Each structure stands twice: as structure tokens, then as C-alpha cells.
Amino acid sequence: VDCVECAPGGNRYVNRTIARTLLVAALTMAAIAPVQAQSRWIAFAPPDKTFTMLMPGQPVTRQLSATDNEVPYTSHQYAANDGGMGVMVTVADFAPGASRPAAANVRDAMLKSLKAFMTSTEERSYTRAPGDVLHGIEFTAETASQTCKSDIYVDEFRVLAALVCATRGAASAAEIDRALGSFKPSPRTSPG
Q: Among candidates 72, 100, 110, 137, which has minimal Cα distance to 12?
């Protein structure tokens, strides 16, 4: 996967690493797509409580660790699908002081890996706790058969990206918004 254009001061290798991670995440999402519909959505939080989000059943989890140009990272991916709508969260942790990609670069890598075109994007902020505000972006995109929406936040230690994709006709925009709106990053903690 080629690197997306780097933001001013960004690290080309970190952006390539995130693009690779998100490609694996998109493939994970595609792999779970054929599962049978589950009727019960659950509030999910990983063991480290990095976030909470409604998911259509217990998610498939995957951990990836790598070093790209001496920039170590660990990525945790959580994905679940109800047969028509898929939900995935990727949390990429970086060592203190390591270069992290801009949220727009993560968005561009996701669009490329999903083979999607963006229909809208806007800056977002999310208050995790008093004085702890995450800044990022939200975007909506279309693939050949799906509508996708994502929130992406970058803090000093990690990238947090939630993605909801629905097969056209399987879920309304309100249902996609409800699923994505349930994504709640937890208050800041130190890495590790």
C-alpha cells in the first residue's frame, strides 16, 4: 500500500504503516460480512477500556504489532457484523514521542483501502473528560455496495478510528449514525 500524502510535519512511514493496518482492518471487515444476522446489539468495551461502542454481537478481535522505519506501534481491531451493517474500531498505540499521522491521513488511507469515495467530511471534537478534548474528523463515504461513516481521533499516544459500513438498503442513515454515535473514547491514559 502506498503512503497517502503526508500532512505538514507528518511521517511518511507512519502514514504507510497506518494504511497497511487499515487495509488489514478492511479485509477483516469483509471477512466477517457473511456472518448470519444477530438480533442483539451489545455495549462493548475492550479489556483495556480504551473505548465503548455498540456492536452487533461480540466482536472478532485482532492484534498487530510492527515497526516501520523504527516507529513501533500496536494495533487492536474489533469488528462485528449483523449481516447488513458492520462495525469496526481500530486503536493504534504508539510509543511516547513517536510520530503519529494526522486524522486526515488516516481518513485518506481508509478511503483507499475501502476503495470508497468520500461524500462528506467535517472536523469533530469529543470531550472525554473535563480538560481532555480529542480533535479529529468524521467522514461519510460510498463504495460500490455500501455506505460508510467514520470518526477518527488522534491523541498523543494513539489513533482511534471507528467505522460503520452498511450494505445499501440494509440500514438507514439514522441507524448508521446511531451506531457511530455510540463510539465513546475513554479518558486519556498513558500508553501501555
A: 100
